[in-house]
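Here is an idea for our session: we take a single protein and study its fold together. To get us started, please write out a protein record for me. Once you have written the record down, we can walk along the chain together.
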Amino acid sequence: MKTTRAWPPLYVVVFAAMLLGIALGFFQPDAAVKMKPLGDAFINLVKMLIGPIIFCTVVHGIASMGDLKKLGRIGGKTLLYFEAVSTLALVIGLVVVNVLKPGAGFNIDPATLDPNIAKNYTGSGHALNTVDFLMNLIPKTFFGAFVSGDLLQVLVVAALVAFALQGLGERGKPALRVIESGSEIFFGIMRLVVMFAPIGVFGAMAFTVGSNGMRSLGYLFQLIAGFYITAAMFVVIVLGTITWFSGFSIFRFLAFIKEELILVLGTSSSETALPGIIQKMKRLGCAESTVGLVIPTGYSFNLDGTNIYMAMAAVFLAQATNTPLDLPHQISLLLVAMITSKGASGVTGAGFVCLAATLTAVPSVPIESLALLVGIDRLMSQCRSFTNLIGNGVATVVISRWEKEITAETLNKNFRLANNGRSNL
């Protein structure tokens, strides 16, 4: 006897919770601000599982591959793709902000801004040179990578374990089976945690609207609108062109990951959707080794939304404070941003810290002007995370297509099956 489903799909419940959070923030802002712990608790629960899930996925994917030449080939293509697309995102951000000039006419005197607000971010926002960046890849202890939550450190540890298991040959198979079982356990825990997504999204969205409301929009509306429109155009035009050449539609892809997109929109963090996007890419037909390499690496090296934001925000602050910023200075800004953006790994607000690092390294723009953006950073973080997630998902499928792991026909068939069915978050 066939039973009817009593509850709607989880992504529908999450979207409804997000709308309730917006309503509470608008009508009862004081009460909405107190909902912040609900959002923080959910994000912390997800972040608790990120390290182990990435570790198990990467170790099993690489150790099961067997072909080190293929691993090197995929790694090379991935980094080349990341640098090309993320640099294009920076350039687009610079072009748009120079055309729109959202900060022109604001005439803000940096001396009138609270310098302590900027200091809260510049203290940790130093620019990493090449040596510092490479040294930061190595955790102080084996488990230190999991404690710090640095995805690149987890990736390094996982790669070392995977190569060690490959070297052991048949003797490493039992350990590999344990890691595979561990992966199933952690994804099982994640499925339980995601059941609380509506509560977390409600709390996060209520706090965002309640704490910012309409007062943060005001004269900053041009920057917010310009950034959202630019990010949308980047997804549709740039990523859409890339997906078209790879044999699939960007809109079908967006429909396929709609659950993860709603989750990111509600929590303002792309990390909350990381486990889900990993599973979705595997279901789509991408090889586990490719997913395990591209997704975690992309969270530090392929942050398209963060790059667009950093370029637009830095020039906006120069325009708002009447700071001359000619083409050579903007090119310097772009080059520094290419490095500092690697420090943002999907954590809420990390893009703002990277912007502080960029302004510290290129002191043409008054660092005190960061105070202008603090009030709207949560709103900007939503769009940054949204774009970052889409960019990394597209990169995974594109690399899989380049590696001939999946044909365009199979890919589109899987899209149709998934988008015509009813999937859980």
